[in-house]
Amino acid sequence: MNRYGRWTAFREAGFWIAAIPMLLPVYLVLTTVLRGPEARGESALRPPGDPTLGNVERAWTEAGGGTVSFSQALVNSVLTTAAVVAILVVVAAPAGYALARRGSKLSGAVFGMFAFALIMPIQLGIIPLYGFMVDAGLTGTRAGLILVYVGLQMPLAVFLYTGFIRGLPTAYEEAARVDGARPLRVFAGVVFPLVRPVTGVVATLTGLFVWNDFFVALVFVGDTDKVTLPVAVYSFVGRFAAEWPLIFAAALIAAGPVVVLFGFAQRTIMKGFTSTLHG
Q: Domain 53-278 in CATH: superfamily?
């Protein structure tokens, strides 16, 4: 066993010092949230003398500006995120498999289009996309928002699945074909279980994007009862002032489910990232 010596203590102290710039914003958020109205003029670095959860209670009841409750915004975020992740996995996984196993020029060109779409900002196409959604009657609906998110994240998901599957050996697939398995059976029974690491990566990256996104949700479901958490938090930003204690409290509540989920699934998530990077 390695003994805890001076060098170990020195490295540990270095890690704590390096963590200060990352922990300081968290400390500022917590002190602002726990500070009562009578102590708002105090320095943000000073711990609150009489901590209170009043800001958290107000954020929960007043977020949404009367359009939607915070609990409804939370449900909207959960449903939207879960639907986007599920659709991406169901569609992007077989698409990545087809692009990875077909060596034709067409498949290479399609993969190049997906790769090029990764660097294209959504702002370039937001106006024609919004016009199309209006014509289709999908603005202000959860289905329309999910469709937009799926389109935005599909290039990344297909890119990750294709790259990972290209690194998998084809021996198991060939054995299944020899036994008479059809292509769909080969994918579902042989390939898909092998791509669980990249599936975790796709679910994590796309899930975080959808959960934290503000711009797309504001454009397509703003001022409706389908708004997600970031838009509900924005309701505390007024024309002439912003209620920062309530904004930080609402943001803290919104981050809670993600932190809890990562706490339970961090080993699986980190294993998926490691396998994808080395795959």
A: MetI-like (1.10.3720.10)
Q: Count of alpha carbons within 13 Å of 42, Cβ hemisphere only?
A: 18
Q: What is the distance between the alpha carbons of residues 253 and 247, in angstroms, rounded to a whole number?
A: 10
Nearest Cα to 219, choosing from 90, 120, 125, 96? 125
Q: Which of 60, 98, 123, 85 is nearest to 252 (CA)?
A: 60
Backbone torsions φ then ψ of 70, nearest 5 degrees:
-65, -35
pLDDT along the chain (279 residues), means of 10: 73 87 87 79 76 85 74 92 95 92 85 87 87 92 95 93 88 85 86 89 91 93 88 77 81 86 74 64
> Cα 217–117–186 angle (5° rounding)?
100
- The tokens of 242 are what? 């912003």
> Structural domain boundaries of the chain?
1-52, 53-278
Residues 217 and 62 sit within 8 Å (Cβ to Cβ): no
CA neighbor of 37 nearest in space, from 26, 57, 52, 59: 52
